[in-house]
Amino acid sequence: MTSPKEIKDSQGLTSYIHQADLEHPEPLLISGDDVETFDVAVAQIKTRILARHKDCLMPVFANEPDDDVRFVTEIENVPLFAPYRLIIVRDVQAVLSKTIKNSETREMLRHAAANLPDRTWIVMQYAGKPGAEFLSVWAEGLVHFATRDLFPEQIIEFLRTSSRKAGLHLSDEVLAEIRDRIIPRAGALEAAIQRIKANLPPGEKQASLEFVEEVLFPSPGWNISVLVDALFHRDPNRFFAEIAKRDPMEDFARPLKAILNRTDELRRARVALDQGLSDRDVMVLTGHATKHPFVQKKIIQRLRYECENFPHDRLLAIYRSLDGLFLAFRSGTNRDEQQILFLERLTVNFF
Length: 351
What we know:
alpha/beta
């Protein structure tokens, strides 16, 4: 059996897609758990084909009934009315499982795969690691890219590279936020970079952390993180602007819990700083020790600022207000009354 041509990394995959012979493209297999990489590759292939052939037939197979028979028939036929065919197969291990297990149909598939018509590009997504029996069907010219999750120490550099390729200049804070909240797969991370680029104004190359959060992690209604930041930065305009976005059907349980957590964090930071502990110890006590050093530096700056503005007696007053609000809301206070109490008691302590 001829071994497939292996692609080592995502850059090699992109290079292959841009350099492949469109007249006689080799079938491409993308395996592993990173489905997003498959989606990115298909999008790149479509862009390249459509730049030369505006009319392109794109049949998709995804383990629907009779897809195995339809697929073999599709690759055997010569298209009469389309200048190009891009044949997309998702979960190919399931689509072709019966075909490959049967010796007769497996031989039919092997013959069809070895005699593909010109201008026919097959792109397949395989969940997991392809076995020898499956690979034997594609003995002639199969190109294979096995996706793998990135190691933690690789993610930031991968994001930097993807950002440069997209023409973006993203801060370490933004890169760390993407790393911490997106699954560590090349396709998912690259798709996140492309979403940021697509939502920026034309020609803009930089994106703030707030912009990235809105694009990648949108939430309906108010943004609780923004609301809490506004409170502890003593910014009433920003606070009331976020309150105005609240969904009337939502109660105040989430913001109360977030404010309590932030108050607890600040209390621990005050104790550590008052005792002269190191910044590293402060990060450990406040639960930020595993975050990127750049992000830790920002957090330390924030905590020092907040400690100056929220002495112990003020923190105690916030705790008492929160305790009173939790008790009032649990007693059956309706949402309109909740908002009045929430605004009255918190604005006194924060603004």
